[in-house]
Amino acid sequence: MKTSQDLFKQLDEAESLFTKGSIKDAQKKVREVITKSKELDKVPNKLRHKLNFAIGQSRYFDDMSSFATNPKREELIKEISTIIESPLESPKKQAHLIHDIQTKWQLLDLSSRPASKEQWNKFNELTNKAWEPCSEYFDELKQVKIKNALQRQKIIDNINSYVQQNSSNWPQPKFLIQFLRKSFEDWQQYAPVLDKDLNKLRNAYFEVKKPINDAIKKHEQIVIKTKENLITKVDAISNEDNDICIKKFNDLKNDWKKAGSAGRKIDNKLWDKFNKAADRFFHAKKELIDSELTEAKNLLSEFKNNQVTLKEISSKIENLKNITKTKEYKLIHKEIKIKQSQYEEKQKQTKVNSYINLLDSFLSNNFENIDLPSSMINKLNKKPLTKSNIDSLKYSCIKLEILANIDSLKKDSELRQSIQMEMLTNKFNKTSNDLSSIDELVLNFINNLSSKPTAPEKTLWKRISKALPELI
Predict the structure, then answer these.
(1) Residues 369 and 359 sit within 8 Å (Cβ to Cβ)
(2) What are phi and psi of 399, to 5 degrees?
(3) What is the pLDDT of residue 411?
């Protein structure tokens, strides 16, 4: 015998099922409690009130179901009435039309509360009348209904076999749901059946599915607890570094995905709750990003107006770690590259000019406005030669032209080939002479130049001046 505590527990379960939308399961629980309560010597008032409330809920959902389906049944009754008023010329076509209407009626009974007695009697009476012109075809359709019933029984047997094979170790819920969905699709294909078979098959169909539905619900309860625990863990996340908080949340999100489904309706609610628990991290992150975006815009404006140097802005943008993929950050980098390129071009031109002006500085012995390494200036001859060493001058000029990939004069082709051979030999032997760098070649030219260079010697320097921009 059930105790009142057991019945209270069953009513709580029914209430939970109503809340989740599992109306038929909840109504079944309520019916069980009604039956068991009759076995009690005395029903406690508290239990009676709770049971009455559950009965009220059950009736409410029945009324809602009827409210949704009764107009559809009335439409089917109207269709049957139309056939009676205007029979089709072909009894076969009329029989098929009635068959289709009966199929729709039975599917409504499967998906909602069965029709009222009055509504069923009216439909049945009209259907029988509509069948009268189709008497010749009636037997053929009856055989179709009998075959449909046999096919539905096979579906029931198949589900029962599936339960027996898998009940000791149920597959994942998604596979159970797929199996039930496929079974339901097959079930709907075999309608209608004879009225005398309808309720028997429908009840057997719902009963045979129960172990599978129970297994799905049992797993969903486990998933619900797992996901509620994950929500609790999100609530407990606390760290001064907001990025660490977000990382921990993303780790828990991976655990959430692995947990499985808690049922479509409850799963969506839990997911919303899970994300809301983490909103505080992303609000803080957004504030930080907004702050950095504002700083980036200000830095860009100051940089364009030359209020901060290239070195200063390069240092400051290192602190903008949260907006590296934003357009604002990319604009700063683009502007830095432009100015960096301009700065480098300017530096290069200054250095080229310093090399080109070296001859004038040497001849005037004034190196104040020249931007060359002091080590290079210190190696310059303090006293210029009285006569230039033309071979050294030509060597420096032609080798610099070779390095700059600039053609030399035709008359210098023999010397150019000689220098190229020397360079190739040095490269092959991994050796080098003292005249391998730009600075060394320029120094070699200046130190072998007289204090009063001739026009041809100055022409050699002009050739060097054309090569220098390509080399620096």
Answers:
(1) no
(2) -65, -35
(3) 92
Judge whether 140 and 115 are in contact, CB under 8 Å: no
Query: How far is CA 13 from each of CA 2, 8, 224, 266, 290, rounded to the nearest angstrom?
Result: 15, 9, 15, 15, 49
Determine which helix (DSSP H) or strand (DSSP E) holds 298, and give its type and residue range.
helix 279-304
Distance CA 370, CA 451 (A): 19
**What phi, psi does 317 have (nearest 5°)?**
-75, -15
d(CA 123, CA 367): 116
Mean pLDDT over residues 163-180, rounded?
90
> What are the pLDDT digits (tens) for 429-467?
776 666 778 888 888 888 898 888 899 988 999 999 898
Distance between CA atoms of 162 and 73, rounded to whole angstroms? 35
Neighbours of 28 (CB within 10 A): 16
At a CB cut-off of 8 Å and minimum separation 6, what does 7 contact? 33, 36, 37, 40, 47, 51
Query: Which strand (E) or helix (H) includes residue 244?
Result: helix 242-259
Output the six-digit token pair for 69.
């389906």
Between CA 424 and CA 443 the distance in angstroms is: 23
- Tokens representing residue 230 in the block: 């994950």
Q: So what's the pLDDT on residue 1?
A: 43
> How many whole angstroms separate alpha carbon 356 and alpha carbon 363?
13
pLDDT per residue over 250-270, tens digit each? 898 899 888 888 877 788 888
Please name the residue that has the structure tokens 């702050």: 291
Query: Does the model's pTM come out above 0.90?
Result: no
Query: Does the CA dihedral 111-113-117-122 come out positive or negative?
Result: negative
